[in-house]
Amino acid sequence: VRSPKQIGEFLKNNYYQLHYNIPKDTLISEASIKTDRKTLLSYNDDLFVKLLDYRKAHKALNTYIKNFEGKDFIRYSLKIHGTRTGRLSSANPNLQNIPNRLEDIKKIFKARDNYILVSIDYQKMEMVDAARLSKDPELLKTFEQNVDLYSDFAASLYGGTPDDYVKGNPKRDSIAKPAILGLMYGMGVDSLAGHLNVSSEEALQIYKTFWNVKYTELFYYKNRLRHELDSTNQIVLDWIPRICKDCMAHTILNTKIQGSCAQLIFLKMIAIDEYLTKNNLDAFLLLQVPVSYTHL
Predict the structure, then answer these.
(1) CA dihedral defined by 8, 11, 12, 16, rounded to 10 degrees?
(2) Do the Cβ atoms of 130 and 143 come closer than 8 Å?
(3) What is the pTM of this model?
(4) Which residues on adjacent β-strands are paired with residue 78?
(5) Angle separating helix axes 137-144 and 125-134, nearest 10 degrees
(6) What DSSP assignment string belongs to 173-215?
(7) Which of 5, 17, 165, 271 could form a disulfide with 172 if both were Cys (CB 3.0 to 4.6 A apart)?
(8) 242-257 pLDDT, tens per residue?
(9) In whole angstroms, what is the distance from residue 219 CA to residue 209 CA?
């Protein structure tokens, strides 16, 4: 039992009748039953703790360990057309998105002898581009004054100043940061409430503060993109001419910004490679990881 469908079938056909005496013909289809980690743990049953541990081990074994077995070097594929927004995606294995719950897997990645791994972070790149594109005064002021974006939003939600919500503060790290990234991606109130583990009322207040109070010009920009999509059925991305014709309305803002940032990353990667070659540096570009949350 691993897939959401299999777990949904088990919950409907066995678990609910055994523990809650609910006739299965009164339940919704197994495909509509929530089987995410948070929901399963909410049953307070060791069965689901063991199931989640098994699912974690199975993913680690089949996605990473078996792929690496007997190999001195990890070789994977980068796809330039693997996503709607045009960002690079990784496959066989996917090295861009190793879940936090598989943190131990990251320990197996090591540089070859006499080399080290270096990571360069384009911090908050997509939010900076959102400020550039939308001309939102609050976003622009935040970056121009070098104020932490998430601390600033936390102060808007709970009062005080950004200095009251430094990194490590739960209202910054567990509410403001995931709220910004989730709302940028297209989350509605209900999804936001589940994502943040807050009430629907609090999620609604966060939603309104973000779009209707704090970043109003970003909200208007999103609506202009929606009108562009409705009128032409396409969105034009910046930097390198490219048109996204299969965009979805609820993720329109993320598509525009992530797509434009992906193109900028391509240009930067080319520039870095040219610099390394020109200066005869014994270094290589190994991987590009998406800068978005992407989600969240």
Answers:
(1) -160
(2) no
(3) 0.69
(4) 90
(5) 130
(6) IIIIHHHHHHHHHT--HHHHHHHHT--HHHHHHHHHIIIIII-
(7) 165
(8) 555 555 666 778 778 8
(9) 11
